[in-house]
Amino acid sequence: MKMHGETRPVFCGSLESRYVTPGLDENLSMTRGQDTYYYMRDGLGSVRNVVGASETVENIYDYRAFGLVITEIEGVECPYRFTAREYEPGGLSHAHFYRNRYYMPGVGLFMSRDAMWADVHRGWGYVGNRPTTLVDPFGQIAYPYVVCGGTPLGLWVMCWKITLREGRVYRELLGLFILENRTWGFVGVYTWAEWKVIMLGIDPRSIDHPVPCA
Question: Rg of the chain over CA atoms, in angstroms?
Fold first, then answer.
């Protein structure tokens, strides 16, 4: 596996750090001066421990389901937390930066609406209220999701499943589907849960989108 590093200032630029990152949100280690530290992550990529070269545990983190930190023991400054996203220290929101938007784990919502969704109900929530199984590294839509586009004849749509594996984005053709003169069409972007509903012949817009409770 090819590794690459990135050097950038941490917080106010008072300290330079180097990160070894083989894939999207897959920081393995950081080096500051002569010291190297290693990230221990869970299945979502959330940082659970930071371990020094001598195998001493420097940092310990525990989270609620939607990412609110409930345990924080920190011997080394670490900018990454829930799902390996950058954490903004201070303030009541405990915001994490998801590249396009800031996320508030205390309430399970983003601070701004996602422009990808025309439906206002889907514009603020996080990963369709499935924070223990899905991730949203770009702050737009949870992986996996489905994208459907029209064909030149206009009678069929082609749908792809977009997944994130080992820090890389993959797409899988789900098939060609006929529109069948529906009052609602396939064309658009859907969460994986909504796609399963569509396959049952149900309009996903008819399903309530509850506000999450973190």
Answer: 20
Q: How is residue 189 written in tokens?
A: 């972007």
C-alpha to C-alpha distance for 167 and 84, rounded to whole angstroms: 11
- Tokens read off for 61: 């983190």
Question: Which DSSP symbol is given to 205?
Answer: G
107-159: pLDDT as tens digits = 999 998 877 665 555 678 888 788 998 888 888 777 888 888 876 556 778 88
**Contact of 140 with 127, CB cutoff 8 Å:** no
Q: Any idea where the domains of the chain sit in the sequence?
A: 5-87, 143-202
Q: Is the pTM of this model over 0.85?
A: no
ω before 105 within 30° of 0 (cis)? Answer: no
Structure tokens at 200: 């049952």
Question: pLDDT digit string (tens) for 97-115?
Answer: 998 899 999 899 999 887 7
